[in-house]
């Protein structure tokens, strides 16, 4: 049995800048933050989003609407590039660190590397475990997220978005979000396979897979 019964990891991209003040504010909302250079900053402690008998502890990380219980929130920083209205870039180092950290936690907590799904309204089944971007929560699990599109923004220099039209509405973006999310999960799955084989995988600076 894993030491904490987490069901999923939800990836985010905060509207913050990259400075220490922004990180100080943002750390209340997530379990960890990934800086531009790929290094990791620990935030809310991991056990805080495991519900107790009476509900979530008061200091839980409120990263996703109506889906914080049993959900780890891991966020890239710097979406606002430190300036209001100016879009930042998600760096390659941030992406790679996100893959490594999600893989380490998936391995530790036994979280399957899949897009969670809820097909119950169509007479099917549901499995809310997995790894997904905030922007995938609403389409995958039917839990409204007020148009959130983070962190899978279709940047033109991401090779896997080239085949997708750069769309502007949340609905048009769904296949793009799915394509980027699938790419992320494929890379996470490759790292999990190495961890399961007992391989030592170098982790990002500041990240200890066993720390809470
Ligand atoms: Zn988010």
What are the defining features of this structure?
5-stranded mixed β-sheet; alpha/beta; Lysozyme-like; two-stranded antiparallel sheet; 212 residues; 7 strands; binds zinc ion
Helix content: 25-40%
Strand order across the largest sheet: 3-2-4-1-7
Order of helices and strands: EHEEEHEEEHH
Low-confidence stretches: 159-165
Bound molecules: zinc ion
Give the structural class.
Answer: alpha/beta
- Largest sheet geometry: 5 strands, mixed
Overall pLDDT metric: 88
* CATH C-level category: Alpha Beta
Distance between the termini: 16 Å
Strand count: 7
Describe the structure.
The chain is an alpha/beta fold and 212 residues long. It has one domain: 3-Layer(aba) Sandwich (Lysozyme-like). It is 28% helix and 12% strand. It is built from four helices and seven strands. The chain has a five-stranded mixed beta sheet. A two-stranded antiparallel sheet has the order 5-6. A hairpin with a 5-residue loop joins β2 (32-34) and β3 (40-42). The longest helix is centred in the C-terminal third of the chain and has 27 residues, at 170-196. The radius of gyration is 16 Å and the shape is globular. Bound molecules: zinc ion. Zinc ion binds at residues 12, 134, 148, 150.
Please outline what is shown here.
The chain is an alpha/beta fold.
Write the layout of secondary structure elements.
Elements: E1 8-13, H1 20-26, E2 32-34, E3 40-42, E4 71-76, H2 92-109, E5 117-118, E6 126-127, E7 130-133, H3 134-141, H4 170-196
Parallel strand pairs: 1-4, 1-7, 2-4
Antiparallel strand pairs: 2-3, 5-6
Helix pairs in contact: 2-4
The structure holds zinc ion (ZN).
The site of zinc ion has 4 residues, from loops.
């Amino acid at each position: 049995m894993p030491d904490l019964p987490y069901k999923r990891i939800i990836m985010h991209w905060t509207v913050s800048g990259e400075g220490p003040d922004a990180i100080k504010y943002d750390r209340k909302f997530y379990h960890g933050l990934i800086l531009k250079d790929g290094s990791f900053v620990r935030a809310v402690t991991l056990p805080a989003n495991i519900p107790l008998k009476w509900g979530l502890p008061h200091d839980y990380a409120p990263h996703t609407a109506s889906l914080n219980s049993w959900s780890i929130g891991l966020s890239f920083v710097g979406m606002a590039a430190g300036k209001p209205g100016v879009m930042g870039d998600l760096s390659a180092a941030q992406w790679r660190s996100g893959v490594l950290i999600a893989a380490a936690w998936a391995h530790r907590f036994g979280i399957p590397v899949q897009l969670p799904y809820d097909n119950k309204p169509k007479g099917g089944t549901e499995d809310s475990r997995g790894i997904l971007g905030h922007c995938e929560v609403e389409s995958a699990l039917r839990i409204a997220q007020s148009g959130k599109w983070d962190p899978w923004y279709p940047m033109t220099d991401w090779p896997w978005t080239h085949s997708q039209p750069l769309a502007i509405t949340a609905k048009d973006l769904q296949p793009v979000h799915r394509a980027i999310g699938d790419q992320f999960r494929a890379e996470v799955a490759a790292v999990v396979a190495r961890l399961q084989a007992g391989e030592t995988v170098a982790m990002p600076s500041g990240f200890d897979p066993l720390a809470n």
